[in-house]
From TrEMBL:
Annotated PANTHER family: AMINOTRANSFERASE-RELATED, GLUCOSAMINE--FRUCTOSE-6-PHOSPHATE AMINOTRANSFERASE, ISOMERIZING
Residues covered by the SIS domain: 44-186, 208-348
Xref: SUPFAM superfamilies: SIS domain
Organism (species): Actinacidiphila acidipaludis
Keywords: Repeat
Repeat as UniProt keyword: yes
Protein name per its UniProtKB record: SIS domain-containing protein
Any Pfam family: SIS
Superkingdom assignment: Bacteria
InterPro entries: GlmS/AgaS_SIS, GlmS/FrlB_SIS, SIS_dom, SIS_dom_sf
Length: 358
């Protein structure tokens, strides 16, 4: 099939070689979570479900914040539990004393090393919360503070832009939330092989990246389960190629920001196959009406209706699992645009792997 031939990966020491290698590891990381990690995740979910939390709070920063937002959709849609994102500064900066009896606090962090995440989790435990840490480091301060821990099993991640830990977070959170409702999460078994198929199509992404080499800004939009993907894609573009990328829920885009979109504005729409995609359809119609340079990541029919994009193998994949596939071409797009603009995506300027916010 056209577009399945991939150029050789960068050699060791070349710009982007670490990020490229870590993106390629994702199917294996997902398989590992489904085999080695799933039993422990299900047991953790069983123990927490027995305590009958009445509310869920999610705490995270950066890329992990987008994984937490994904979990918010899962928890509200699949469990019907009220769920919110924490404002950590209310406890770490303002010293507020929350009342969190019977509340589940899930803290998501690749490194588990940011001081404010640990301090917030400790304060929540003192306030009566059930605390769960989801990290890629079982020996991290956060893992030690939390009552429960889920290991992402992603192996060391050395590139500054997080890729394999993000998709591992999505998979781990999916398995955990399914476990809370006594579902074994077996629907996720198809994801690693589909992810490998998507990642093989590097030439398609490289061709698409040519459209954005000289972009001065970008808009990325979605609805429902795709919205966290939009936010993560925007972050990846900003931190690797320094393009100002604005992520909006499709509903929010219509409430004002649509005015900045014109016929030279590059817009990427992430269209899930399901209710979120149907809810986004009026936004797509408005964008086409404004003559936007619209690219779609999603089902083939939506890509054909746009001015290009990347078709995903989403048939028979539950909508809640599609974000694990949606982000893959967008990670590669950020990588390819950075390379085309002469940047090294392994080492974005002014960033460090562990950001110690307080």
């Amino acid at each position: 099939m056209a577009g399945t031939v991939t150029s050789p990966a960068p050699r060791r020491g070349e710009p982007g070689w670490i990020m490229s290698g870590e993106m390629a590891e994702q199917p294996e990381v997902l398989r590992r979570l489904l085999t080695e990690g799933a039993p422990q995740i299900r047991e953790t979910a069983r123990l927490i479900a027995a305590r009958k939390p009445r509310f869920v709070l999610l705490s995270a920063r950066g890329t992990s914040d987008h994984a937490a937002l994904y979990a918010k959709y899962l928890i509200e849609v699949e469990l019907g539990l009220p769920c919110g994102l924490t404002s950590m500064s209310t406890t770490t900066a303002y010293g507020a004393t929350p009342h969190l009896e019977d509340v589940l606090l899930i803290t998501v962090s690749q490194s588990g090393g940011s001081p404010d995440l640990g301090a917030s989790a400790a304060a929540a435990a003192e306030a009566g919360a059930i605390t769960l840490a989801v990290t890629n480091n079982p020996d991290s301060p956060l893992a030690e503070i939390a009552q429960f821990h889920i290991d992402l099993l992603a192996g060391p991640e050395k590139a500054l832009p997080a890729t394999k830990t993000y998709t591992a977070e999505l998979m781990a959170l999916y398995l955990f939330v399914m476990g809370l409702r006594d579902d074994d999460g077996s629907a996720a078994a198809v994801v690693p092989d589909l992810a490998a198929r998507v990642l093989e199509r590097g030439e398609e992404v490289r061709h698409l990246a040519g459209r954005y080499r000289f972009a001065e800004r970008m808009v990325i939009t979605s609805r429902g389960y795709g919205y966290p993907t939009a936010k993560e894609a925007a972050l990846k573009l900003m931190e690797t190629s320094y393009i100002p990328a604005l992520a909006y829920s499709g509903a929010d885009l219509l409430h004002g920001p649509l005015a900045m979109v014109d016929n030279i504005s590059p817009v990427i729409a992430i269209v899930t196959q399901g209710r979120g995609g149907r809810a986004l359809q009026p936004v797509l119609d408005r964008l086409r009406g404004r003559g936007a340079d619209l690219v779609v990541v999603g089902p083939a029919a939506q890509v054909e209706a746009a001015s290009g994009g990347f078709a995903l193998p989403t048939d028979r994949v539950p909508e809640a699992l599609q974000p694990l596939l949606e982000i893959l071409p967008l990670q590669k797009l950020a990588y390819e645009v950075a390379i085309a603009r002469g940047q090294d995506p392994d080492a974005p300027r002014a960033l460090s792997k562990v950001t110690e916010t307080r």
